[in-house]
Amino acid sequence: MPAPKLPVSVLVVIHDPRLHVLLIERAAQPGFWQSVTGSLDAVDEPLAAAAAREVAEETGIVAGGALCDWRLANEYEIYPRWRHRYAPGVWKNVEHVFSLEVPEATPVRLAEREHRAWQWLPWRDAAAKCFSASNAQAIEQLPRRLGRCEGA
């Protein structure tokens, strides 16, 4: 039995200079489109390291020092269908938001066990397509966040 997931995660909105956002479709939930997300692997894993790791694992993109930490955390209820992955009694998650600007037409290599498709969409269309409200809200904030990066 794998160790329970930690209820602390990262969300990384990957975009190009024209504000086209990369969305990936979950393999186990067709129609569930999202940005890169993932839980910390250990309690002491730095948030930026988790964000860079998740980007590389899920898309094959190496973030390097280009991650932008929004210093924004969303707390939300974990969907009941996914609570079995966490320790008993855990029902909330804290998600830390990052963004990553990449050149246009950056190649994407999906982790096939996790995701089945990817697409670049203008930011408004991407926000409308996300199944997660916090993901959609982050994408909607993207134009206002540009140039205000605090580094990761």
Quick description:
The chain is of the alpha+beta class.
Describe the structure.
The protein is of the alpha+beta class and 152 residues long. The protein is 22% helix and 33% strand. The chain has 3 helices and 7 strands, in the order ββββαβββαα. The strands form 2 sheets. The protein has a 4-stranded mixed beta sheet. It has a 3-stranded antiparallel beta sheet with strand order 3-2-7. Helix 2 (123-129) runs antiparallel to helix 3. It is globular, with a radius of gyration of 15 Å. The termini are far apart. The mean pLDDT is 94.
Please describe the biggest sheet, giving its number of strands, its sense, and whether it closes into a barrel.
Answer: 4 strands, mixed
What general form does the structure show? Answer: globular
Global mean pLDDT: 94
Strand content: 25-35%
- List the secondary-structure elements in sequence, H or E: EEEEHEEEHH
Unreliable residue runs: none
Number of helices: 3
Structural class by secondary-structure content: alpha+beta
Order of the strands making up the biggest sheet: 4-1-6-5
N→C terminal distance: 33 Å
Helix content class? 10-25%
How many distinct beta strands? 7
What integer value in Å does the Rg equal?
A: 15 Å
How are the secondary structure elements laid out?
Blueprint: E1 8-15, E2 20-26, E3 33-34, E4 36-39, H1 47-59, E5 67-77, E6 92-101, E7 115-122, H2 123-129, H3 133-145
Parallel strand pairs: 1-6
Antiparallel strand pairs: 1-4, 2-3, 2-7, 5-6
